[in-house]
Amino acid sequence: MSTKILWADDEIDLLKPHIIFLKNKGYDVVPAVSGNEAIDILDNEDVDIIFLDENMPGLSGIETLKHIKTVHPHIPVVMITKSEEEHIMEDAIGADIADYLIKPVNPSQILLCLKKNINKGEIVTEKNTQAYQQAFRDIALKISDSNSLQEWEIVYKELVYWELELEKINDPSVASMLADQKEEANNRFAKFVTKNYEAWLNGTGSEKPLFSHTILKEKLFPDLQEGKSAFLFVIDNLRFDQWKSILPLINPYYRVNDESLFYSILPTATHYARNAMFSGLMPSEIAKKYPQYWLNENDEGGKNQFEQPLLEEYMKRYGKASKISFSKILNVDFGKKVLDNLRNMLNNPLNVVVVNFVDMLSHARTDVDIIRELANDEKSYRHVTATWFANSVMLDMVKFLSEKKIPIYITTDHGTIKIEKPIRILGDKNTNSNLRYKVGRNLDCNSKDIFEIRSPEKVFLPKENLTSSFVFATGSSFLAYPTNYTHYVNYYKDTFQHGGISMEEMMIPFIKLLPK
Which of 153, 307, 271, 276 is CA-nearest to residue 214? Predict the structure, then answer.
């Protein structure tokens, strides 16, 4: 079916060469000599796009535009005018035009406008598909050759870039290619991590990433100054691709001064990674130095209830002002209270705001059917995150702090991965319930898709008893007990989980933003 164009211009006869040109290109043009005639045609015919002259006698182009947008808001309208006066452009743009052309227009301008507004989806699909297919081999070589922190960061950022680019098109075959390539990357990344993790933590390797317990010391503390205020937002479970999805909403208010990736410690879970971040210590060091602030897996009570005193102690050790505010946003009401108190918080050198939405989203996606439908794949998971942020109290905070010229930092404790492949594991009754890692005695798992740590103390993890060990799932796998295995697997398959080893869980953002 050809594209139908409604072209309204009181000098339509002078445009016959353009109309003939468009018909030869396969477009169907319906002419109108006035705004009223254009409105009458729209009452009886379906059109795909409207070309509208701004300066027509009777009902002006702007008046016609307002009527069209009231009745037919989804039809793109291109305003064509002889005038370059700013107020006319502003009136047209304010009425939500698709494009703006200045007379005299030439055929190539018109054709470009049509391709941009009508054929954009097909063109973007074709170009992005070709571009990714060309990049596929280069990325595959990088995946097979990557053997350093910097090389893996490049691989992950390229894969995220293509995820975001290819979500603009609807091509299942290309999406499948990218998913397979990402799975291959995660499998090789897991081997890279398991080979180097202990050396990284003990400082015996040739390189060492920024980790949960070093990120604040390296990226935040040097910027803190007496008499000035800064805000650190820790969005639980925020992946790098999700950060990219909310960045356009922040751009009007802040510019990115630093966009870094750092590594979550293992397990990539809040209990371990966030306590490490706020203490500047690995979990076994917290348990030894501050036993009153550490709870093991089987201890009762909230595992992250002592983050503020741990951070205050951390800042004292590095000679930083300990006057801080520490807030956790667990629901909308909590968020509004923090927002209402922002002005008072500006007197503190550091204000920490922990935001739990993304974490709640991942858990809700497991337990609530409607959330499973809303976030049923990587693309929709990102979109739900962006939709939340666009309507969140946190964005209101960002706007307020931008007006006050306050620098902000955004980070997370770990990411998540969509799990697909079950692995059978055996453990005693005290083994924890996390799907991506297990800690306990007598763990038995015969799989190549795991990383087992039999001596937790070597990687600074607490050892609850002499035979305790840790097992971590890699790639998109997850750990399941043989008991009621089929039901368990079907219930949790294709949910987003954390705790194990993958690029999404371990390579996470730390962002410094300066107000515009």
Answer: 276
The per-residue pLDDT for range 174-226, each reduced to its tens digit, is 888 999 999 999 999 999 999 999 999 999 888 999 999 999 999 999 999 88
Write down the number of H helices and E strands in the chain: 21, 18
Sheet containing 4-8: which strands, arranged edge to edge? 28-32, 4-8, 49-53, 77-81, 99-102
Whether the link from the prior residue into 482 is cis, omega within 30° of 0, is no
The secondary structure of 179-219 as a DSSP string is: HHHHHHHHHHHHHHHHHHHHHHHHT-SS----BTTTHHHHH
Question: Sign of dihedral through CA atoms 476, 477, 478, 482?
Answer: positive
User: In whole angstroms, what separates CA 4 from the centre of its chain?
Assistant: 38
- As a whole-number percent, the residues of the chain with pLDDT over 70 amount to 92
DSSP string, 383-428: HHHHHHHHTSHHHHHHHHHHHTT--EEEE-S---EE--EEEE-B--
Tell me the one-letter amino acid at 65: L
In angstroms and rounded to an integer, the radius of gyration of the C-alpha atoms of the chain is: 28
Tell me the sheet residues that pair with 152.
Answer: none
Question: What single-letter amino acid sits at 304?
Answer: N
CA distance 61 to 81: 9
What's the distance, CA 450 to chain centroid? 27
Rounded to whole angstroms, the Cα distance separating 471 from 449 reads 10
pLDDT at 275: 98
Q: Are 101 and 80 in contact (CB under 8 A)?
A: yes
Listing from the earlier edge strand, what are the strands of the sheet with 324-329?
A: 254-263, 507-515, 408-411, 230-235, 350-355, 324-329
> Which neighbouring-strand residues pair with 353?
233, 327
For residue 262, CA distances in Å to 189, 327, 413, 435 come to 15, 23, 10, 23
Q: Across-strand partners of 50?
A: 6, 77
By the 8 A CB rule, do 353 and 397 touch?
Answer: yes
Q: What angle do CA 489, 491, 495 make, to 5 degrees?
A: 95
Per the listing, tokens 């043989």 go with: 482
Residue whose C-alpha is closest to residue 406's, from 347, 354, 324, 355: 347
DSSP H or E stretch at residue 514: strand 507-515
pLDDT digits (tens, 9 = 90+) for 250-259: 999 999 999 9
Total count of residues recorded for the chain: 516
> Closest by alpha carbon to 447, among 465, 474, 420?
474
- Give pTM, 2 decimals: 0.82
